[in-house]
Each structure stands twice: as C-alpha cells, then as structure tokens.
Design brief:
Organism: Glutinoglossum americanum
Shape: globular
Radius of gyration: 21 Å
Structural class: alpha+beta
Number of strands: 9
Number of helices: 5
Largest sheet: 9 strands, antiparallel
Mean pLDDT: 93
GO molecular function, one term: FMN binding
Protein name: pyridoxal 5'-phosphate synthase
Keywords: Flavoprotein, FMN, Oxidoreductase
EC number: 1.4.3.5
C-alpha cells in the first residue's frame, strides 16, 4: 500500500500486500499447545528447524543478531547465519576484531537472535549470553568454507571505512599472495565462532486475528538444567 491519500505526510501507511482493504495477511497454518513442546528449548528448536528445512523454508539458518553497546545503549542488528547448534546453544561465525558487533559484545555479552520462517508462520526468539569458541573448534568450521571465503575472512577489516572497492581488492590480493599454493589456511586470530547460550527462548506460532500462540522457556542462569515453560499473551 502506498501513502495514505488523506495524509500525504505518511509515505507508507498500513501495507497489506496490495490488499485494497488494508487488511494484512491472516496467519492460519497451525497452532501450538503446551503438549507440543519438548522439555528442552534446544531440542524444540532442532525439531522446528528440521521441519522448516523439510518445508523448503528459504534459508532457515538466517537469523537477526541484535547487540547493544554499553554504556550508551546503542542497539545494532544484522542478519547472520546459524552454523551450529549444540546442547549449549547457537553458534555463529564472524570477525571479532573490527566489526561493530565485536565492539558491542565486548562491552555487553547479552545478545538476541530472531528467526522468522514465513512459510510456516513461525518465529523463534533467543536471548542469552555469549562465549567465544576456541580457535581449534572454529578451525573445524573454517576448513569447510570455500577458499575464497577463507581468504576473505583474512582480508576484510569488517566495518572499517573503505575508500573504494579497489582498496578491498588490494587487501584480498595481499592475502592471496601470502597463502599462495597453501591449501590449509589457518584461522585468523580475530575471526571465529560465537556461541549464544540461551536464558530465554520463545516459540511463536501465528494464528488468526493476531491471537498468536507464544511459549517461552526461561532459566535464571546458564548453569541451570531445568527450564520453566510459560504461555504468553499474543
């Protein structure tokens, strides 16, 4: 929907996928009850992720990582890829030397992840604490990347200002020369895995009239093995 004709100051007003009656899409695929849930949010996420993959959800591993810088409280968000899931939490990989997210996490280890799977009308929210993976553990994933991506991890000074693309190309060429003829490339010391250890995980299933089913798993400390499960108002 374009701007509201009665108020030209509103450049966008109640977008609804072209519906002339300003009614956004209703969610009607499914529902979620307490009996559907597994005791562990990690196991529940794994189940939902497998279902999303089976339903051909486009890139179900894509997730919004939100961070906040302390003391200003400035919030940043970006799309990253979930690369691993284990019993401790959710693992992503990135530059932890120069990136904005690195600066944020260094000041505040609390982050959130948001997964949105529109084909299934499902959303998962994760809030938790971060920990860096060891270089040895990160190297395992790094070795699975294509060579150009491994070179790129070395070359990119993520989030730093570039004068032009040629400057980046020169940085890549420098790294290419450094590792010329070398198939086994070591992981950069500033790059690697970050595990998000959850304290809260919410599973959201869309329903009609915006009366969504929402359940959250919560615990007070990452050492707690028991999770409290609560239904939330939509």
């Amino acid at each position: 929907m374009m701007a509201n004709a009665s108020d030209p100051a509103k450049l966008i007003f109640a977008p609804a996928d072209g519906n002339p009656h300003l009614q956004a899409k209703q969610f009607a695929i499914g529902s979620l009850s307490r009996n559907d849930l597994l005791p562990s949010p990690i196991d529940q996420f794994h189940s939902w992720f497998n279902a999303a993959s089976a339903c051909k959800v486009n890139q179900p591993e894509a997730t919004t990582l939100s961070t906040a810088y302390i003391p200003s409280g400035r919030v940043s968000a970006r799309i990253v890829y979930l690369k691993e899931l284990d019993k401790k939490g959710f693992v992503i990989y990135s530059n932890w030397g120069t990136s904005k997210k690195a600066e944020d996490v260094a000041s505040n280890p609390r982050v959130s992840l948001t997964f949105w799977w529109p084909e299934m009308e499902r959303q998962v929210r994760v809030e938790g604490l971060t920990e860096r993976l060891s270089p040895e553990a990160s190297q395992v994933y790094y070795d699975t990347r294509v060579r150009d991506s491994r070179i790129g991890a070395w070359a990119s000074r993520q989030s730093s200002v570039l004068h032009d693309r040629e400057e980046l190309d020169a940085q890549v060429a420098e790294v290419e020369k450094r590792f010329e003829g070398q198939d086994k490339i070591p992981i950069p010391d500033f790059w690697g895995g970050l595990r998000v250890i959850p304290l809260m995980v919410e599973f959201w299933q869309g329903r009609k009239s915006r009366l969504h089913d929402r359940f959250q798993y919560i615990r007070e400390d990452v050492a707690d093995q028991e999770w409290k499960i609560e239904r939330l108002s939509p």
